[in-house]
Amino acid sequence: MSTATTELATLNTTARGDHFTPGWDRQGNPPMWSEPKTSFVPYLWKSADAYRYLNESREVVPLELTERRNLILTNPAPGNIYPSVRTLVMAYQMVVPGDIARTHRHAPHAGRVILESEGAFTVVNGVRIDMKPGDILLTPGMHWHGHGHEGTEPAIWVDFLDIPLVQLLEPMYFEPYDDETEFQMWETITRDSPFVFPIEKTHGRLASAEIESPFHGRRIKFDTDLMPTIGLYAVQLRPGESTEKFRTTSNHQFVVIEGSGVAEIDGQEIPFERGDAFVAPAWKFRSLRSDDGAILVNISDEPLQQYCKYFREESAAEAHEDTRNKAYRVGA
Ligand SMILES: [Fe+2]
Hints:
Layout: H1 3-17, E1 43-45, H2 47-60, H3 63-66, E2 69-72, E3 89-95, E4 100-106, E5 110-116, E6 120-124, E7 127-130, E8 136-139, E9 145-149, E10 155-161, H4 163-169, E11 174-176, E12 188-189, E13 196-197, H5 199-207, E14 218-221, E15 231-237, E16 246-248, E17 252-265, E18 268-273, E19 277-280, E20 286-289, E21 294-300, H6 302-307, E22 313-315
Parallel strand pairs: 7-12
Antiparallel strand pairs: 1-19, 2-3, 3-10, 4-9, 4-11, 5-8, 5-10, 6-7, 6-9, 8-13, 14-15, 15-21, 16-22, 17-18, 17-19, 17-20, 17-21
């Protein structure tokens, strides 16, 4: 070994000992790469499986042990222990008649897509909102919220939260309402609130919705100004409709609230039906189609990526163009 080589090896070792990583000796860990990549994978969670596990939990898991009867939709990416996609997480949750979920608040923004509910409600900052199947409820960060149930059958919904993003940025807070009062009672009962998108209004908007783009199809956007990290949309596939294959830098979660169809994500055919949830991680080509019609709720970090000016989307044809000459489509 030459003297220079020995000196370089000594320099590298000594610098690393003082927690400097020599830029000339990255050891296979480049900080940037030529295009988006993710270890997260497309995945489908079947509602029938979720309902079965939640029902079984009623027999064997006392609520005082769990606080929540929920099932977190953990992406099967190697080494992943929590998120559904990089920035977001979903969970099926069951509330049985008589249960209350204690009032609390937290930094992460959250919402829920209601699948089964007759008599279940959420109280957000003193406003009670009765939940119907197909509704979407918001509980923006640091808003007090708790759930109750005055009906006779279990209520089931899919929660969505930006917890993985908050874990990354680290401004995490969680607070119970108070030690004396476990549940914040309501001052008003309404379905006319920025915290709820009732299914009947979603149907009305979709009925007159135009095709937004070949990639997104008939998509409407819900107002999430109170929780700007989360983009929230409803996508309708009318019978026989399909969307064009494309890829986007944003990460997407879907919950099927009506009908059935097929998603093709990264070459995988994913047949979905009402109640199912699936994910399309960043930069995986995807398209949707339905023979009989479907409505999906789509939760993503698209507006956040647009705000950051990271957002890109492109068709399969555009993917083959010379990168240096490519006119990236950056969305609205
Ligand atoms: Fe919560």
